[in-house]
């Protein structure tokens, strides 16, 4: 049961991370002033990586993978 929960939480974290990385890429292609564009893209990219890492850690703990 915990293995399945670990897998679900991993995929949830990976999905959120992918959406945040897509938001970072979208931010870089919009007409936002340069300083704000890089700041927002950086925040979105780091948040996406953190979401993925949290999901990965939960999968490791719960599913023993």
Task: Characterize the structure shown.
By secondary structure, the protein is mostly helical. The protein has one domain (2-63). It is 88% helix and 0% strand. It contains 2 helices and no strands. The chain has helices at 2-28, 34-63. The radius of gyration is 15 Å and the shape is elongated. The chain starts with a helix and ends with a helix. The mean pLDDT is 91.
Layout of helices and strands:
Layout: H1 2-28, H2 34-63
Helix pairs in contact: 1-2
Summarize the structure.
The chain has helices at about 1-30, 35-65. With about 60 residues, the protein is mostly helical.
Radius of gyration: 15 Å
Total number of strands: 0
Mean pLDDT across all residues, rounded? 91
- The count of domains is 1
Instruction: Write the H/E string, N to C.
Output: HH
Task: Please outline the major beta sheet.
Answer: none
Q: Fraction of residues in helices?
A: over 70%
């Amino acid at each position: 049961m915990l293995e399945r929960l670990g897998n679900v939480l991993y995929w949830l974290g990976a999905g959120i991370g992918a959406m945040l990385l897509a938001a970072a890429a979208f931010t870089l292609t919009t007409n936002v002033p340069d300083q704000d564009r890089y700041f927002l893209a950086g925040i979105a990219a780091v948040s996406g990586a953190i979401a993925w890492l949290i999901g990965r850690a939960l999968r490791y703990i719960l599913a023993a993978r």
